[in-house]
Amino acid sequence: MNHYLIIISxxxxxxxxxxxxxxxxxxxxxxxALFEPRQENVKIVLxxxxxSDSSISIFTNVTNLIIKNAILAxxxxxxxxxxxxxxxxxxxxxxxxKRRLHFGGWVRDSSNTDCYxxxxxxxxRDTLKPVTFKDNNCTVDSGKWLDPYSLETLKNAxxxxxxxxxxxxxxxxxxxxxxxxxARCLYGNYLGYNxxxxxxxxxxxxxxxxxxxxxxxxxxTDYKCTYLKNWLYIKGLWGLTMDTTEANAVKELxxxxxxNISKMTISDKEIAQQTLFVNKNKDLCVDHSE
Length: 290
Fold this sequence. Notes:
single chain; disordered N terminus; 9 helices; globular; alpha+beta
């Protein structure tokens, strides 16, 4: 049976070099500076059976397919619940996780005329009323945000954190350690999918930390199925794996919550749109090695 990974071509810009300014990144203050990623022999990857007899990797072929309009013209929809088990033959040597070194911070896109960082853009995007600013109208000071995790309503921007749906540490462990710095930095600042970065109550985000659904689920019951869908969607787009504990927990939660599995999908058009966004923003970050 032939399968292919549903992934987005985040590595296409590995040789690009441009500079951008960075600002501090949100996250739990209790997170350790170093983390030795677990190296398990069994990994779970999102996959989908091909109609043809040969396997096509989205990673290597998506650009050509877009040029030919093969994806944009397609209405094919794939389930996010089709997984493959991959047995690794050897244990890789992986550098210890360092958040700032590997992902950088929030960036300000110099191609735009505004001075907003990624954090500011998410707060502006998600506010329920117009925001106010401080620091030369660049930093969001107040607004009105409804945290989807806890349903707390917040007005002070200082109480808000910008959560990565799939946390940076988990992304690193799940495959981002293989990426270039520019790919990881783009992941950390990604605005192509509205559920990649979430304006969340800081205290709730600290509770989540870098945990997978095996250890953390948002207290808002009505959001749990959406949370699981977005977790799988992002892991699929970015070609990130799950360990067996994580995958089993996601499967059990979907069953327990009676989630609508018909909504847990990704389409060719969505993959193409996300790939185009990546290509358009491939120069957002600067490589530390430059």
